[in-house]
Write a structure and sequence with these properties.
Strands 9-12-15-18-23-26-29-32-35-37-38 form an 11-stranded mixed β-sheet. It is an alpha/beta fold and 361 residues long. 16% of the residues lie in helices and 24% in strands. Among the domains are: 95 residues, Udp-n-acetylmuramoylalanyl-d-glutamate--2,6- Diaminopimelate Ligase, Chain: A, domain 1; 151 residues, UDP N-Acetylglucosamine Acyltransferase, domain 1, CATH 2.160.10.10. Pathway: Bacterial outer membrane biogenesis; LPS lipid A biosynthesis. InterPro entries: Hexapep, Hexapep_transf_CS, LpxD, Trimer_LpxA-like_sf, UDP_GlcNAc_AcTrfase_non-rep. Its EC number is 2.3.1.191.
């Protein structure tokens, strides 16, 4: 079997460009014009490859690497071998990410799946849809009446863009995605299978449950990324909003009327109930559950698998079920562990005392 490479290498980067991306000067004696053509892990990197290291677990791999250059934190720099140019910087991973996008530009966002540009013959585009020049639509995609799509956007195969949906420029809409009642900004990435704009879960409960029509929209601002098979319900009466620069992982459920601020991070398996607000820069770990009508303050972080059932102040770090400030959570866990250990010791003593008794004949 041939060694298939899915991402085409770019033109490469020079050592001077690597140092500039890291915001540092090249070490003395390094050739600024030397070109690196790929990025690789420490263990497999060769003389033309760029690597990075910022975790003590990989210290041994760093000492043995054959990478042409390595972005490395100050405390590990001395372990870089003589044949590797050490680019010492405070945040190696961030610099590496920026350079990786230049080395493999087609990995930055999903591209056409059919290998071409423009409108594929198997696409179904309503005559009243409006597409700017430079839009790519793969086979099987459906674009409804009065939909608007900006230049540079790619619509993947079998995606469905509903009537009146607006998509900005340079977006990527993944295969099998459905968008309805939605307005998207520029440079939005939606991975395959995501669902945006479907009904929110709204019923007036009673002897028979009366459906509440969901008449709001989903608004996704610029530079948002939404993972595969994530669902974002449209608002019931207000809009569901995802703020600029927010990154949402796979398999996330966002209910109606939720407002998510700018530059939030929401990890896989999260569920956010209706009418909750996340302020800017909030981070929700994997499988966090948030009940409805809450406010999570700016810059707060919630540990994975936690359940949030009350408002969270700005700048907080919470965890647990129900979620609470991490210090209180850790004290609770420590206390429970000590109680369990003590109970186990007392149980062992009782068992030992019982073993020494003899039954009367």
């Amino acid at each position: 079997m041939s060694d298939t490479q899915f991402f085409t290498p770019g033109a490469g980067v020079t050592l001077e460009e690597v140092a500039a991306a890291a915001g540092v000067a090249l070490p003395e004696g390094a050739d600024p014009a030397r070109v690196l053509t790929a990025a690789s892990p420490l263990e497999s990197a060769g003389a033309d490859d760029l690597a990075y290291m910022d975790n003590a677990r990989y210290g041994e791999a760093l000492t043995r690497t054959r990478a042409g250059a390595c972005l490395v934190g100050p405390r590990f720099a001395a372990r870089c071998p003589a044949g590797t140019v050490a680019i010492v910087c405070r945040d190696p991973y961030r610099a590496y990410a920026a350079l990786l996008g230049r080395l493999h530009p087609d990995a930055m966002r999903p591209g056409p799946q059919f290998g071409g540009r423009g409108l594929a013959s198997g696409a179904h585009i309503h005559p009243e849809a409006r597409l700017e020049e430079g839009v790519t639509v793969d086979p099987g995609a459906v674009i409804g009446p009065n939909a608007e799509i900006g230049s540079g956007t790619v619509i993947g195969p079998n995606a469905v863009i509903g009537p009146g949906v607006r998509i900005g420029r340079d977006c990527s809409i993944g295969a099998g995605t459905t968008l309805s009642h939605a307005l998207l900004g520029n440079r939005v990435i939606i991975h395959p299978g995501a669902r945006l704009g479907q009904d929110g879960f709204g019923f007036a409960m009673g002897a028979s449950h009366l459906k509440v029509p969901q008449v709001g929209r989903v608004i996704v601002q610029d530079d948002v990324e939404i993972g595969a098979n994530t669902t974002i319900d449209r608002g019931a009466s207000r809009d569901t909003v995802v703020g600029e620069g927010t990154k949402i992982d796979n398999l996330v459920q966002i209910a109606h009327n939720v407002v998510i601020g700018r530059h939030c991070v929401i990890v896989s398996g999260v569920g956010i109930s209706g009418s909750t607000t996340l302020e800017d820069y909030v981070v929700l770990g994997g499988q966090v559950g948030v009940v409805g009508h809450l406010r999570i303050g700016r810059g707060s972080q919630i540990a994975g698998s936690s359940n949030v059932n009350r408002d969270v102040p700005p700048g907080s770090r919470w965890g647990g079920t129900p979620a609470k400030p991490v210090r209180a959570w850790f004290r609770e866990l420590t206390t429970l562990a000590r109680l369990a250990e003590r109970a186990g010791q007392e149980g062992s003593k009782d068992a030992g005392a019982g073993a020494g008794r003899s039954e009367p004949e």
